[in-house]
UniProtKB/TrEMBL annotation:
It comes from Dialister invisus DSM 15470. In the C-terminal section; belongs to the purine/pyrimidine phosphoribosyltransferase family. Mg(2+) binds at residues 289, 352-353. [4Fe-4S] cluster binds at residues 239, 389, 469, 472. Keywords: Glutamine amidotransferase, Glycosyltransferase, Iron, Iron-sulfur, Magnesium, Metal-binding, Purine biosynthesis, Transferase. It is an enzyme of class 2 (transferase). This is Amidophosphoribosyltransferase.
């Protein structure tokens, strides 16, 4: 996906013994979810001990390697973030606690102004001039008489999404977003428990699956057990992009494997296309998240899977970008290295997880043609993205007009498009939809272009579609 990834991941542990080792490696297993900031905090005999580092050009393990030799505690949490520095240590009438969040706050300015007007509280600006969202969440929590009321109040007031871990000297409080847009998974072992974003992060640390928190559920973890303090709600809208793009292949959400879901998406696209070995020579995936989609496509179609593009990762954190704008696109393309013998003269199906702005996939196709490809049939594992996400920070786009689908629609209909018209463009059986796809294909320079259908994508997950958020594709809340 050619977007500016904005996400966070976390790993919290409460053990009868020291938990620094588990939190260090468990947090590192979330490195694919963030590239800018990381932090860890522990509570032990000497109270709270925290460390935060910038990880833009240095891996998490390298930045925190020296810290873990000094840090101690049997309660702790770590987080990877793409924006705000966290976890924060907060001193309030609740006592001292540490807080980490995965959030999208659409009404941040309104909440900030309201809080300032009420009590004269001030907020520290980050380097970009924005307020730290985790600091705002802490301020909302502190409006109430106890932590549970405060967490519920923060989730009620925030327009967007909020999942959090809150560490006190007594235990680790975990609160999943009210509609479960992002996950909280609990693992257990003989020594205690952990709470994580990615379920696979604890498997090599000797934990077993315990359970996932339900939407809106608040629980507290101690080394002795897990206690639900606020029961889960019935409605859920978990982000479907967690399977399509964000999730690590070995992760599971709501019991559904990320790798298997992607595989099924590829199978569905192959069935719709009907390509055989007579039509194309190879199926390839754009590394990394396009690979499983492509494997499903290849196995269902019978067209051989191939890797004509490999991603060079040993010394290139995916966040690395030079300050000189003119070099940024070149750097992004330089991470992919072609294998000319697998490209030259080939008719290929090229599968990516999605098409957002279109820039990188277009350049990848140009790259393949320049390397001797005969045909490039591009396939996206999800439908055209028509709406900017209101619930996850998967892109800090300033306008929906940065979405290639919306730019093409604007050329046909103007920028102020009626909702019924957008609904028609979202319908894969409509004439408008097909015309939009044709224009995107021509602009991108593909031999052909196809998107996965929304119904096929939801079927690939195998859970109740009403529990999955599809806002970015069809604008449904």
């Amino acid at each position: 996906m050619e977007k500016e990834d904005i996400m966070s991941g976390f790993f919290g542990a409460v053990l009868k013994s020291d938990c620094v080792f588990d939190v260090f490696f468990g947090t590192d297993y979330h490195s694919h979810l963030g590239t800018r900031r990381a932090g860890m905090v522990f509570y032990g005999e000497d109270g709270f001990d925290r460390s935060i580092h910038n990880i833009e050009n240095t891996p998490f393990r390298t930045k925190f390697d020296s810290d873990i030799h000094q840090m101690r505690g049997n309660l702790g949490l770590g987080c990877i973030s793409d924006y705000e520095a966290q976890p924060l240590i907060v001193r309030s009438h609740h006592g001292t606690y540490a807080l980490a969040t995965v959030s999208k706050i659409n009404n941040m300015d309104e909440l900030t102004e309201e809080i300032i007007q009420k009590g004269g509280t001030h907020f520290l600006e980050m380097s970009g001039g924005d307020i730290n969202a985790t600091e705002l969440v802490a301020t909302l929590i502190n409006q109430k008489d106890n932590l549970i009321e405060g967490i519920c109040y923060a989730q009620e007031r925030i327009d967007g999404a909020l999942t959090l871990l809150l560490l006190t000297p007594d235990g680790l409080y975990c609160a999943r977003d009210r509609l479960g847009r992002t996950p909280v998974v609990i693992g257990r072992k003989e020594d205690g428990y952990c709470a994580v974003f990615e379920s696979c992060s604890y498997l090599n640390l000797e934990y077993e699956d315990d359970r996932e928190l339900g939407p809106g559920e608040i629980a507290v973890l101690t080394p002795e057990g897990v206690k639900t303090l606020v029961a889960p709600g019935k409605d859920m809208r978990i982000c479907t992009f967690l399977w399509i793009y964000y999730g690590y292949p070995s992760a599971r959400y709501e019991g559904v494997s990320v790798e298997e879901m992607r595989y099924h998406c590829g199978m569905a696209m192959a069935e719709r296309d009907g390509f055989t070995k007579e039509d194309v020579d190879i199926v390839a995936g754009v590394p990394d998240s396009g690979i499983a989609h492509a494997m499903g496509y290849a196995n269902r179609s019978g067209v051989p899977f191939s890797r004509p593009l490999v991603k060079y990762t040993p010394t290139w954190p995916r966040s690395f970008m030079p300050t000189i704008q003119s070099k940024r696109n070149l750097i992004a393309k330089m991470k992919l290295i072609p294998i000319h013998e697998l490209i030259r003269g080939k008719r290929m199906v090229l599968v990516d997880d999605s098409i957002v702005r279109g820039t990188q996939l277009r350049e990848t196709a140009e790259f393949l043609f320049e390397s001797g490809a005969k045909e490039v049939h591009a396939r996206a594992a999800c439908p055209p993205i028509l709406f900017g996400c209101k619930y996850l920070n998967f892109s800090r786009s300033n306008s929906e007009m940065e979405l290639i689908a919306r730019r093409v629609i604007a050329e046909e209909e103007g920028e102020n498009v009626d909702r019924t018209v957008l609904d028609d463009y979202a319908d894969p059986d409509s004439d408008r939809y097909h015309k939009m796809v044709e224009k995107i294909c021509k602009r991108m320079g593909f031999t052909s272009l196809g998107y996965n259908r929304l119904d096929d994508m939801l079927d690939a997950a195998g859970i109740d579609p009403s529990k999955m958020c599809t806002y970015c594709w069809n604008g449904r809340e």
